[in-house]
Amino acid sequence: MFDFDLYPFAQQLKTKLIAGKMGLFDPTRKVFTAATPEEIVRQALIMKLNVDFSVPIALMMTERAIKVGKLRRRVDLIVYNRRAQAILIAETKAPTVILSQQVADQIAVYNSAIFAPGLLLANGTQGMYFKIDFEQESAIPEQYMPEIILD
After folding, report:
1. Taking the model in full, what pTM does it have?
2. Is the CA virtual torsion 95, 101, 106, 109 positive or negative?
3. Between 3.30.43, 3.40.50, 3.90.1570, 2.60.40, what CATH number should domain 2-142 receive?
4. Which of 10, 83, 115, 146 has the greatest CB tally within 10 Å of its CB?
């Protein structure tokens, strides 16, 4: 686990009152969505990936529906490379949620349908990144968020 402060990015999110409630602009879907604690983390992560890691918004997708066995799930965020291959999936949680083994298991299940080589968990203050070794069928924890290679 490493420090992964998204607060500076959360302060810069585009907001709008919708029916008396705060909404956040999701640039990947080009819509405003309810400003829940988890959504604030997700939108701040999108901004961080765009600004600090130079990932174009066009290569990110939020709330993608997937099928895992007979169950339908939604992946919080997928980052694609320029060949349209998923290279990272992220699971965002509210700042009050501890990044636990249960959260890691959740993203691992999602990745059984996506096969991304990188998994990121973020709660706004902390992050966990795992590099996936498909040959060894293992997840290798990293001590930091690595550079994202888009080519």
Report:
1. 0.93
2. positive
3. 3.90.1570
4. 10
